[in-house]
Fold this sequence. Notes:
The protein is of the alpha/beta class. It is built from six helices and nine strands. It has a domain at 57-202: Vaccinia Virus protein VP39 (Rossmann fold, 3-Layer(aba) Sandwich). Strand 8 (182-190) and strand 9 form a beta hairpin. It is globular. S-adenosyl-L-homocysteine is lined by residues 60-63, 86-87, 89-90, 92-93, 107-110, 113, 135-137, 152-153, 205, 207-208.
Amino acid sequence: MKVTNHQGLAKRLVEKLRALGIRDQQVLDVLARTPRHEFMPESLAHQAYENTALPIGNGQTISQPYMVAKMTSLILEQTHGRVLEIGTGSGYQTAILAQLVSHVYSVERISQLQYHAQRRMKRLDLHNISMRHGDGWQGWVSKAPFDGIIVTAAASHVPDALLAQLSPDQGRLVIPVGAQQQELLVIERRGDEFLKRSEGAVRFVPLVQGDLA
Ligand code: SAH
């Protein structure tokens, strides 16, 4: 890798995230030790420890570190159990989660991205991850229910399938919803009831409806 001193750079990034309000020390520790530069094209690796989203090909982006830290904290507030991720992309969010929960199930609609993400998980020696090429609007029925579900692309509306696959016993969904104006929703299931709150405005690529790529 061309990035030298990535541990020092990652530490600095984590200090920035702490200053921006990320409080969960476990999350900060995992971000500090996960090599983000390995999740992107080498030509962009020099920007890997900046707090920005970056292009990863196929019109997609690796999420901003602050957003990864925030969404991970929102999941961990509720569970360290089985978590479904929709939108594997580079696999960065997947790798962060896998170091903090018992198992991550991750669905991605673009096979090329999924293939590279899978290889990264092996290289990083992360084995509590199951990946699937599929449509995230459908969730992952055969592995449900999930203690947590995290969606890393913005949905036009909350997918019913994801609500149905939440554990009735306080399963939690973290999902950006909207088109031009998006907000990050936290939805918690109590049996047949769903409690909803907003964590404010966000910006993600769209959760695509249609054929797999
Ligand atoms: N967490 C990823 C974010 C990638 S961007 C990272 O940090 O790298 C969002 C991802 O969601 C893209 O890879 C995109 O292909 C995927 N996506 C969009 N619509 C989808 C759908 N309907 N089903 C599954 N994945 C989808």
